[in-house]
Design a protein that fits this description.
The chain has helices spanning 9-19, 28-35, 57-72, 104-117, 134-143, 163-166, 177-181, and strands at residues 2-8, 42-49, 76-79, 81-88, 95-102, 123-127, 148-153, 171-174. With 193 residues, it is α/β, with parallel strands linked by helices. It has a single domain, classed as Rossmann fold (3-Layer(aba) Sandwich). Strand 6 (123-127), helix 5 and strand 7 form a beta-alpha-beta unit.
Length: 193
């Protein structure tokens, strides 16, 4: 049995940061392997993210180191981009410049559909609970009715699944601090939860 793991990297990063100190260096491959069925023989992991160039050198250094570690475990890292745009404060009306991630949501949705259609995946694990993914899950299920779809979530960023998304997922997986701590890069042993 084959599984595909699809990660919205920025949302996962913020969710892990909110979950606890020293949680953001997650070995996604090993954590996903533990979360998926024991019958799964092969796992493909796609990690969608964007380089935070607008945050400066230290953030880019951390980003580069983390994505390099992910790639060393076989994770395919796909980079989007940040786009700078003006935004008006709803309270005071002041204009500010904000950086918004672009291309990730559409890329994640396309990967869900492609995984159901082409890869022959029996299971798809998604690290995102964005309701915008509902049409992709619906299409994936219509293309491959037997595919099992699991959604991993935690905290305010990977929040509880939207009701529309829940109708197409087979199961939710709640990521908890004690589990996440055991799957950080740099640990000598990976303990089951």
């Amino acid at each position: 049995m084959k599984a595909v793991v699809i990660v919205d990297g920025l949302n996962l990063y913020h969710a892990l940061k909110a979950l606890g100190k020293n949680h953001t260096n997650l070995d996604v491959y090993m954590a996903s392997k533990r979360l998926l069925s024991k019958e799964v023989l092969g796992i493909e992991v796609f990690y969608f993210t964007s380089p935070p160039e607008h945050l400066g050198g230290a953030a880019m250094k951390n980003f580069t180191a983390h994505t390099r570690r992910l790639q060393q475990t076989g994770v395919v890292v796909i980079n989007g981009r940040f786009q700078r745009s003006a935004s008006r404060c709803k309270t005071c009306g002041a204009m500010t410049q904000v950086n918004k991630e672009k291309e990730t949501d559409v890329s994640v949705a396309l990967q869900i559909v492609e995984s159901a259609a082409k890869s022959g995946a029996a299971q798809i694990l998604i690290y995102s609970a964005d309701s915008d993914l509902t049409p992709a899950l619906k299409l994936a299920k219509s293309i491959n009715p037997g595919v099992q779809i699991f959604v991993a979530q935690t905290g305010p960023y990977l929040r509880n699944s939207h009701p529309a998304l829940m109708s197409y997922e087979d199961s939710k997986i709640e990521l908890k601090s004690n589990f996440i701590r055991n799957y950080q890069f740099g640990l000598d042993t990976k303990k089951p939860n």
